Every structure is written in structure tokens, then in C-alpha cells.
Amino acid sequence: MSVTAPRGFLASGVAAGIRPSGKPDVALVRSVAPAVGCAMWTRNRVQAAPVVVSRRHLETAQPQAVVVNAGVANAATGRPGEEDALATAARTAQLLGLRPEEVVVLSTGVIGPRLPMERLLAGVDAAAAALSRDGGAIAAEAILTTDQGPKTAVAAADGFTVAGMAKGAGMIHPCLATMLAVVTTDYPLAAGEADSFLRPAVERSFNRISVDGDCSTNDAVVLLANGMSGITDRDPGLDERFSRRLEEVCADLARQIVADGEGATVVLEIVVSSASSHEEAEAIALRVATSPLVKTAAFGRDPNWGRVLAAAGSAPSNGGFARLDPDRLRVAFDGTPVFARGAPTGQVPELAGASCRIELDLGLGDGEAAYLASDLSYDYVRLNAEYTT
């Protein structure tokens, strides 16, 4: 079901011929009842045309539909690219009886080329005609690029449902990790309220993952909420449970992105505790998660804790490095302590599975943070060396 699991949502996915493979490459999601929503966007200074256009749309209207194309990113395409994004929104709005400003446009794929608009608009026509309650699965397929498969998540509680679909496998890094996500819910939110729920969920999920350290030009997470659950009596406790379900869906999708990282064979969970501050804990977790030496060691199933120490001790923070005292530091791999109080423990963990948890207890304060990352394999280099050729 994916994005159509909550009440009042329709979706579709069609093959428009944008991707050379002939696989589905245009997805459409809409609410059948008036919705409210918001989005979080990449903070990359080079922003794709659909990001520029959709940001403007959300400044003046509530989102009612999201249209996505895969295969061409429509990034670094100048004013013509913006016109293409506007034309896509206009065609979608016309077909669905909406205003163009109520349509969010997303694109993913190769940076630089113009969109094949004749094929894309024909795909929008077909996607609008194919909208259905059963269209969530094919929509999740239609947004993929180098992904091995679709990424979906659903959480339900207390009479409401939150669901989402995402794509992403490479160019994944905080500041929105190239990834796109569409999240839907039938929980009742007021106009202007969605951001206060989505932002913390994204900060603790999509902004805590890294595959290759590259921040994309097209990243976006869009939330649509239509209130069709029928819930009329909200209270702080119910809002908190909604927040947890929203974060659960975002975290599930984020982990799937890391697990499907281009060439990935291991998911690394970096957990930092007892840092001097939360900010310094985050800096250390990020530094370890993005270290090429840590990531390549993970690929070789090599518990090379020295690389973890070196990365942790060089985490940029506040114009210098985050505070760390080796005599207080403890490091463990999958629960096996490998370094404690300034010296190796002599224990050697066996790293044979598809995941590895690296814990760093700094013994300095109450700061804590966690990141998810993938290893760095031969296949990652091969795939990205041949991406456009």
C-alpha cells in the first residue's frame, strides 16, 4: 500500500520512457480530501529546478499532490529547467482540478540534461488516469534510480496511519540525504502545523544517515496530511503518539536507504554517548560515519578500531575538534569492548553480518547522538565511475 495506506490517498506509477530501462519513471500521489503539508529540502547551494519551484509553491499554498519523475534530475538546467518544472505542475493541476501551486514537483536522476517534456507530460497524463488506492506499490517503484528495490514503510496507531515511500542509494549525506521521500497521513493537522512535526522527525532520521558524504541537489521530504482518520479530539498525548509514528516511518525509510547504499554490504550504526554536548556528540558520530577508512574496514569485516579513534579525535566542531580524552574513552564493536581507558582490551570481535554497531562512550558529559552509514565497496566505485557512460 505504501503512501495509500492512510485514508483518502491515491497513487500511481507509469513508464514514460524517461529511463532507458523502460521501467516505471513517473509517480503521482494525491489526497482526495483537502490536505495540509510541508516539505524539507536539500541545503545544497546548487538546487534543482523542481526544488526551487516547489519551495515557491509551498510559500503560497497547501500541497495536495506530488508528481515525481526518475531518470533526469532537472538540476543545473537554468531558467529552462524551471519552466519545465512549472509546466509539469500546471499539467498535473489541470488533470486533478487543482491550482499549480498546490502541486509539488520532484525529480531525480542525472544532473545536467533537460527533461524530455513530451514524454514526461504524456506520463503525467497516464499517471493521473491510473490513480488508485492500490497504486502505492507501483508509485514506490517509479521513483527509483540506482536503488535495488522500492522503500516503503507504514505505522498505525490510535485510529490514524502514517505511511511513506522513499528512494535513495547514492549521493546520500546529511542536510537531507540523492534521496526523495513522500510521507502521507490521515492524522488531522492544521495549516502551518505540519513543519513542527516533520522537522524533528527528519532531523533524527534522514539527516542522520550517510552513504558517501555527498549532499544532493534534489533532496526533499514531503508530508501530506488530510485528516480523514475522523479524529476530532486531539490532545498532547495523541500528538506525541503521532510524532512517534511519524518518526518511526522516517527512520524506517532512512535505514532502508542506507542498507541499499550503492554497493553496500554492511549497515554501520554509530552511537556516541557521554560527550561534552549533544552538538559534539553529533560531530563525532558524523565524522566516524563518513570516514572512508572506517567504511572500507567495514567492507572487509575488519574491526580496525584504530581508524574509529582517529576519526573521532578529528571531528570538526566550533572551529576546532570536538573534545575527547582517550583515557576516558571506551569503544565497542557489536558489544565487544576493543578500547578502554587509553588502551586496547585485546578482544577481537567477529564482524560477519550485514550490520555493525560501533559504540563510543566518551565519559565527559551527557551529550549523545547516532548515525547510520554504509560501508564502501568495490561496487560503489564501479557504479559511480560509470554513472553517465
Provide tags for this entry.
5-stranded mixed sheet; 389 residues; alpha+beta; Ubiquitin-like (UB roll); L-amino peptidase D-ALA esterase/amidase; 7-stranded mixed sheet
Describe the protein's architecture and organization.
The protein has helices at 49-60, 78-96, 117-130, 136-142, 194-203, 236-259, 278-289, 292-299, 305-312, 378-385; strands at 9-14, 26-31, 36-41, 65-72, 103-110, 151-157, 160-167, 180-185, 209-210, 220-225, 267-275, 316-317, 320-321, 330-333, 336-340, 343-344, 355-361, 367-374. The chain has 389 residues and is of the alpha+beta class. It has two domains: 2-259, L-amino peptidase D-ALA esterase/amidase, CATH 3.60.70.12; 267-385, ArgJ beta chain, C-terminal domain (Ubiquitin-like (UB roll), Roll). A seven-stranded mixed beta sheet has the order 9-18-11-17-14-15-16, with helices on both faces. A five-stranded mixed beta sheet has the order 3-10-8-7-6, sandwiched between helices. A four-stranded mixed beta sheet has the order 1-2-4-5. The relative contact order is 0.14.
Number of helices, where a helix is a run of at least 4 consecutive DSSP H or I residues: 10
Task: Quickly give the CATH architecture of the largest domain.
Answer: 4-Layer Sandwich
Task: Tell the overall outline.
Answer: globular
Q: State the low-pLDDT regions, or none.
A: none
**The CATH homologous superfamily of the largest domain:** L-amino peptidase D-ALA esterase/amidase
Largest sheet: 7 strands, mixed
